[in-house]
Amino acid sequence: MKPAFPSGFLWGAATAAYQVEGAAAEDGRSPSIWDVFCHTPGNTLCGDTGDTACDHYHRFPEDVELMRTLGLGAYRFSVSWSRVMPSGTEPINSAGLGFYDKLVDCLCEAGIEPFVTLYHWDLPNALQASSGGWLHADLPRRFADYANVVFDRLGDRVRFWLTINEPWCIVDGGYFTAQHAPGIEDPALGYVAGHNLMRGHAYAVAAYRASRHGTGAISFALNSNFAYPVSDSAAGQAAADRAVEGFAGWFGDPAYRGEYPSVMRARLGNLLPEFSEEDRELLRGSMDYLAVNYYTSDFVRHAVGAGPMEYERIPQPDRLHTETGWAVVPDGLRDLLLWLTKRYPELPVYITENGAAFADTATDDGEVDDQARIAYLRAHLDAASRARAGGVDLRGYFAWSLLDNLEWSHGFSKRFGLIRCDFETLERTIKASGHWYADVIRNARSQNHGIEAGTEQPVRGGVSG
Ligand code: IFM
User: 89, CA 20 to 30 Å: which among 134, 284, 384, 432?
Assistant: First the structure.
């Protein structure tokens, strides 16, 4: 039987700086908008902050050893802009940059591919305070300057880059609902922030491709739900189509072809800013690969007046839900990957996040028999393999998350890890799901005749300006 995943498939796990690092005030790091948000009473459950988080900053050698135990081929982590450039611009903080240098060395020594995200939501607060952060038209240039510093330092060892993690979440949480930093509730501003995030992505990609190490692959992490109609009417199907275009297409279309989806342009009008011709040029073909973060899907119906896109989500109480209240819809992963591959052809695909929070119970020894998480991951890997069989050029999969961490405004209450973190003692224990994932990786490798061909070289996608 043909193996479900090919030789060279990248098996990884992911984290993000503010969620795991801690050491918030060490070695010259300045506060990010997430430090300010978490330290503002009422913003996070129990007032939890990332001050210590998992203390990955100090414990990364132990964590890399755990990755080795799991047999991971790749580790996706993010760089904290506030560590590297505390004011947001020059000067560079060499201690902060040095941390990532050491982490990358440690991963390379362990034979684990570093997969680096430049921005996972933690803007230096100095830039928010002085200029309004992503609302300022100049911020994309500042982001590219910072990105360039990181490319220059780590680019000799890092071959996979992501500019921005989940622009949709940044806009939704940060500007539509105020559940995330910077805690603004003004949709009109959200579209401006989203626009500048994509401009920042484009400028950073251009900087990378012009840099001395710029031969790897770069993209941004696109999160999206898939959407299914709750009725089989034509209007229901059209509403579901709009929902996917307005979610995945909102950021995918600009990065592929330099413009927002026409359905968004038609329905949102002036709420969507215009890209300049120069921005369009830089945006087109700015994904060397598709990086997809998937957790759940929506069930929708056409709803006149329910916002410009005129659809509404219908709750599915009969479906299994995770602790974050998200319906478990593995087929949505397959359908989303097929949709993305059809809309953005010729691009290799990596699932850069997939996972679930469940109410883990730990024994006194910290052991966790998280069968619900195993079932979730198994079903999603099966959906991923069906997407591959359907023609998706899937090259890698990253479980979210390597270890339990700060789940943003939910604080430490939602656990996504393959590895348990005891937030009192900071002790780590591999959960049943971690052992299960290690078996999946081992079996996949042995199905490929025990010959692990090494990670395929990053390939630039076939799209050009
Ligand atoms: O924890 C987050 C991560 O930071 C971004 N993607 C979704 C995860 C789960 O909510």
Answer: 284
